[in-house]
Amino acid sequence: MKTLTSRLFFAVTTFVITLAGTCVHAAGFQRGFAVDPDGKPLEIGIWYPSQATVQPLVMGPTTMSVAVNGIAQGKALPLVVMSHGTGSSFTGHFDTAIALADAGFVVAAVTHAGDNYADQSRSADIMDRPRQISRVIDHMLSTWDGHALIDPVRIGMFGFSAGGFTTLVSIGGIPDFSTVEPMCRRYPGDFACQLIAKSGSNRAAPLTSATARAADPRIKAAVVAAPALGFTFSPDGLKNVKVPVQLWRAENDVLVPHPRYAEAVRLALPEAPDYHVVPNAGHFDYLVPCSAALASIVPAICTSAVGFDRAAFHASFNAAVVSFLNKTLRAGSGT
What is the DSSP string of 103-131? Predict the structure, then answer.
């Protein structure tokens, strides 16, 4: 699994996103670190509106068209924090981050410590992730050199897979880990069950650095795609979720299969989410489309179902995410 997730990061971060001259804003970009008093500094990627000229930026295997250190433009801008899936990095959804920056958002995506492409030593310690998200928000509101441009009452979150679980906890969800053991007995092939087994954790008590609520009340809206461990959330566990949620499920997702993940979350949320089922899509179709060369290296994450157009899906997916966050975050102060 480590090999797969490492190759997944390699694949995701080698795509070229070209966004030149077609948007109202250009995407400025910075790479930085957020201080975490309880752990290592957290690597973050930051995208934001800028009128500077974009140019290709190469960071190892990653190429993006952005304005590196371009002057940030705007005032009272909404902030979106992003949480990636297991074994990825802050670049995991950079096409969505660029789309949001083009639309006038500041985006801060973290590389989760202990669960990234280079270090998966704590990939089962999933309850450490929400704390890391809060530290990123702290950094963006107080330390980032453009923090004065952010409206602190308009903060949203985006999460995919393990990042989807992270998002649910960050907005008030309380998972019941006692459900993991019986679920993994019944479905030992589930990705989460294999991950826990490989980590050496007890399936009845997966590694959790914190079992109490880890919600961050500053988050006012959330986009959740293909959430991991969705079955751990009962209606009682999600009763404290009071913010609007956009929820995505891939019809043919074999890593978080229907109905025990996204569908379980949909049924447990106290208010109906903006729910999207993507026909014929698989789990990895939420990642940006692969080039032919990369598809030959990592076919497991690059091969979509026959007839599924991943590029077209991403155009509509990013537009829907932007629209939802515009609608749910633009109503705050500063509008």
Answer: TT-EEEEE--TTSSSS--TTTT-GGGHHH
